[in-house]
Specification:
heterodimer, A: 4 helices, B: about 40% helix, globular
Chain lengths: ~60, ~475
């Protein structure tokens, strides 16, 4: 279980996002940290090369000629 | 030609109305007036409309009728009453996104989908209720109240195309536009007992539609039946240079394959999605089991399919959605956060916790999941699972943080961008609809619609309308 998000860290993250929240909203936001972390854990896994972000050019036949 | 499915309420399907109009046996003016009468009678209880365009609708209907009498209908949509979700821009007509921020917003240009439906000859009855900016859930702190379910007005319609779902189920329009970023066409279709198709990403232009999450947003048809969705999709599909995601490829005749049966069609069941990953209500499970039997009776083969857990698809889609939405509305998030509903404020707040690395990892996972579904469908024509977990909950029971309450069955196909339709598969103990979802390969909408249409016509659910609409 990760430590509960501290006020200073939360304030920093919100400032980065440019959001000004009420104290009640900040407290509520802390309560969903675990659920969000669980989501992140599902996508933070080793990936193969086919999962790289990449441009995919697909010229039409007449353009490729 | 299909059997007419007009109900005891006298509300025709789009397809039936089109046939009757073409035969000059149904007047577009009378059809439009009947829809408007239903709006006046029912919408105080349903809140499906944010803007009623009555004068314009009657003028368009008269014009359509005159043209049809002279030279026949342009398309099956000619003279058909429709509605547009209120995130679809309409020239000269207020487009509010159900938000306090846009109460005075009057666009100068139609969204491409609105323009194409108008060119097909449809009659615009009005703009339809949505969750604010197609996000957040049912809110009571917005300029207009949330839509209510015609099957029981204490219950949720799902969203965000909530007004479109309610208006079609109650017969106030014959079809309408929905948008779908994580299930916003298929969710309301499921809970309101109608048909809703999320097409392949890029098939229907998003130009002129307010974004929710750029790479997950889809525009699509909602109507009483799959056949109706096919007719509507015909008018909507096709390349549009105003949308950078628009696919440039030929548009087939979507209605052509309807009625050709299911002999030899290969159906996969993603059983673990709805039986173990998120166990559905008994009525939904029965609907799926009965559907499998129906498909077999119609000559299809049915096998099980295993994919990554439903929660993986949900996590991937949700992280992308949270981030892209915050980017789309960053300026207003910084300057007008308090002008959003509480629910949308909460969604925008989440982005503070999702880093750039998190987003990229989600996009990498998406590439794997797309490949996984493509491989699983290599020997299949469609796969099926639930459209929703069960009957519609009461409005007050919708969770504050619904994104974390449970994964849904629709997000996987926003992640992959593949076509998927929700159709009614029965009714639960509370008398509310339950739903089946049918998913196809990219740009294989014709197959999805063919299977959905065969299912609807083999079952009796399309003869049932909400009692309120009688």
């Amino acid at each position: 279980m990760p430590p509960m998000l501290g006020d200073a860290t939360l304030d920093y993250l919100l400032a980065q996002a440019g959001l000004e929240l009420t104290d009640a909203q900040k407290q509520e936001l802390k309560t969903i940290q675990d659920a969000l972390d669980a989501m992140k854990a599902r996508v933070r896994q080793p990936r193969g090369p086919l999962a790289e972000l990449a441009h995919g050019f697909a010229p039409k036949p007449e353009e490729a000629a | 030609m299909s059997t007419p499915t007009s109900t005891p309420t006298g509300i025709p399907t789009l397809a039936d109305a089109a046939r009757l109009i073409a035969a000059r046996q149904l007047s577009p003016v009378e059809l439009t007036q009947a829809c408007l009468d239903r709006v006046h009678r029912l919408d105080e209880r349903l809140n499906a409309f944010v803007l009623l365009t009555e004068e314009r609708a009657l003028a368009e209907a008269k014009e359509a009728e005159a043209e049809i009498m002279r030279s026949g209908p342009r398309t099956p949509l000619h003279g058909i009453p429709i509605g547009l979700k209120d995130i679809v821009e309409t020239a000269g007509l207020r487009t509010t996104c159900q938000s306090a921020i846009l109460q005075d917003h009057v666009p100068s240009e139609d969204a491409t989908c609105a323009a194409r439906l108008a060119a097909a000859g449809s009659v615009l009855i009005g703009k339809l209720t949505t969750h604010e900016f197609a996000d957040g859930g049912p809110s009571f702190d917005l300029p207009q109240p949330p839509a209510r379910n015609p099957w029981n007005t204490d219950h949720f319609t799902a969203g965000s195309s909530s007004g479109t779902g309610a208006a079609i189920a109650a017969g106030m329009i014959l079809c309408g536009i929905g948008t779908d970023t994580g299930g916003s066409i298929r969710g309301p279709a499921a809970l309101c007992g109608i048909a809703g198709l999320k097409p392949t990403y890029g098939l229907v232009s998003r130009a002129g539609v307010f974004p929710a999450a750029f790479s997950l947003d889809h525009i699509g048809p909602m109507a009483w039946t799959a056949e109706d969705c096919a007719l509507m999709l015909q008018a909507l599909a096709g390349h549009d240079k105003r949308d950078p995601a628009s696919a440039d490829q030929p548009v087939p005749d979507y209605a052509a394959a309807l009625g050709s049966g299911l002999k030899g069609i290969r159906v996969g069941v993603i059983r673990h999605f709805h039986e173990t990953d998120l166990k559905v209500a008994p009525a939904t499970q029965k609907g799926i089991d009965d559907a499998v039997m129906t498909f077999r009776d119609l000559g299809a083969t049915v096998t099980d399919v295993t994919l990554s857990p439903l929660a993986d698809w949900h996590a991937c889609g949700s992280l992308i959605s949270i981030t892209e939405r915050a980017a789309a509305y960053e300026e207003w998030g910084r300057t007008r956060l308090r002008d959003f509903s509480e629910r949308v404020q909460r969604r925008l707040m989440l982005a503070a916790f999702v880093s750039g690395v998190d987003y990229v990892q989600a996009v990498r996972r998406r590439r794997e999941l797309c490949a996984e579904l493509a491989a699983a469908m290599a020997g299949l024509d469609v796969v099926i699972t639930a459209g929703a977990p069960g009957e519609a909950p009461k409005l007050e029971d919708v969770p504050r943080w619904d994104v974390f309450a449970a994964p849904n069955f629709t997000m996987p196909f926003n992640v992959t961008g593949t076509p998927a339709i929700a159709v009614c598969s029965g009714f639960g103990p509370a008398g509310l609809p339950v739903s089946l979802q049918i998913v196809g390969k990219p740009f294989q909408e014709a197959m999805v619609l063919r299977v959905a249409d065969a299912f609807e016509k083999a079952t009796g659910f399309r003869t049932m309308r909400p009692p309120l609409a009688a």
